[in-house]
């Protein structure tokens, strides 16, 4: 999926659309989504020229959000009957077992390796790992593992009337 396809699929928009591409998607199984971290991210707006590298750490909360958005794309592709814009809303909640192994920084290209752990009629549990491609390095760097994120699928009419 390219950026155009992702914009059609997810209701998120700037500054909260946090998936740039999907490079692998196996329906009902797994996908890999890409998030490019740049110095133009809103979270770096207040960082001055005197900032240290630690000041440029990308917030883990935003990494988990982009991970969940990749999971939502996997859920949507795996459940063709769901029309998030009209009939249903996806809600991410209950994030468990996040183990951070490394920080992410501008210039990193995050790869969200997301798998479906469990599927119920109105809920999908995803899990996986976040890895980064870094400038000047060939191997992927492990950023975090995520045991589970619960994605609830609820009828829009029940939530919004």
From TrEMBL:
The protein, known as: Beta-hydroxyacyl-ACP dehydratase
Gene3D superfamilies: Hotdog Thioesterase
Organismal lineage: Bacteria, Pseudomonadati, Pseudomonadota, Gammaproteobacteria, Oceanospirillales
UniProt keywords, alphabetically: Lyase
PANTHER family to which the protein is assigned, alphabetical: 3-HYDROXYACYL-[ACYL-CARRIER-PROTEIN] DEHYDRATASE (PTHR30272:SF1)
Domain of life: Bacteria
InterPro entries named among the record's database cross-references: FabA_FabZ (IPR013114), HotDog_dom_sf (IPR029069)
Biological source species: Aliikangiella maris
């Amino acid at each position: 999926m390219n950026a155009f396809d992702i914009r059609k699929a997810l209701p998120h928009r700037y500054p909260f659309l946090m998936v740039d591409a999907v490079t692998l998607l196996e329906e009902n199984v797994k996908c890999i989504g890409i998030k490019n971290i740049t110095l133009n991210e809103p979270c770096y707006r207040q960082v001055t020229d005197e900032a240290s590298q630690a000041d440029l750490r990308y917030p883990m909360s935003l990494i988990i959000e982009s991970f969940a958005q990749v999971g939502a794309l996997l859920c949507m592709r795996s459940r063709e009957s769901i029309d998030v814009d009209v009939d249903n809303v996806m809600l991410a909640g209950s994030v468990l077992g996040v183990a951070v192994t490394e920080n992410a920084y501008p210039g990193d290209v995050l790869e969200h390796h997301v798998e479906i752990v469990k599927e119920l009629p109105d809920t999908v549990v995803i899990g996986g790992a976040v890895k980064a491609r870094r400038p000047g390095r060939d191997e992927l760097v492990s950023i975090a593992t995520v045991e589970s994120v619960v994605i609830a699928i609820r009828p829009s009419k029940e939530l919004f009337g």
